[in-house]
Amino acid sequence: MIKVGIIDGNQQSRGMMRVMLDHQQQYNFKVTLEAGSMGECKKVQPSQEPNVLLLDIEENGVDSIMEIYRKFPNTNVVIYSNIQDHNSVLACVKAGAMGYLTKDTCVNEVISTIVTTHKGGSVFSPSISRNVIQHVQQTIDYQSNLSFRERQIVEGLKNGLSYKLIGYKYGISLDTVRQYIKRTYKKLNINSKGELLAQFK
Fold it and tell me: Is this structure's pTM higher than 0.85?
């Protein structure tokens, strides 16, 4: 038996998923947890801990992944959401998500994802996989356009160093650091540190 959990703020969506899982004939699924938020899971007994949990982050947020693992350490979280931007996907993976499905995924794919995840695998919707691959490729392209020193300075910024500390670390003046940063912005066609860090996440 595979115990399944569903946390989705949309009650209709949650109910439809439960019905679909309950009525499939191929695998022995049991929905042991159905909730709109982590707050509703306070009274869940250890015996109800799901093997695989489908989580919509639209209303619950990425932080709920860590909450789930604190409460259910043996659960595998699979995101099931309409949110598809690469920053959200990467944040979910970093937080411990073992898979990521879009809500237009067909029932059979959801079922096979639950089984695959329970067996130790990971499944991502094709559009999500393409999005992440393109982001990684773009990041590599950006890096190839930068000089060795420019990449060092980007690394310093990513690590939270100030301009002054970057200069100290690499033995260059503060003005030189600023010049390198201006050149980096120009090469990447950006205007701020925030944009820079977003590209190199």
Answer: no
Show Cβ contacts of residue 1 under 8 Å, excluding neighbours closer than 6 positions: 28, 29, 30
Q: Cα–Cα distance between 25 and 29 in angstroms, integer?
A: 9
Tens-digit pLDDT profile for residues 164-201: 999 999 899 999 999 999 998 888 878 888 878 777 76
Amino acid at residue number 140: I
CA–CA dist 19, 15 (Å, integer)? 6
Closest C-alpha to 7, from 72, 49, 55: 55
Helix, strand, or coil (residue 106): coil
Class of residue 109 by CB neighbours under 10 A (exposed 0-12, middle 13-18, buried 19+) = middle
Residue 139 has pLDDT above 70, yes or no: no
Report the CATH architecture of 145-199.
Answer: Orthogonal Bundle (1.10)
The structural domains of the chain, with segments of one domain joined by +, span 2-132, 145-199
Q: What are phi and psi of 54, to 5 degrees?
A: -90, 125
User: Under a CB-based contact definition with an 8 Å cutoff, are residues 166 and 123 in contact?
Assistant: no
CATH dotted code for 2-132: 3.40.50.2300
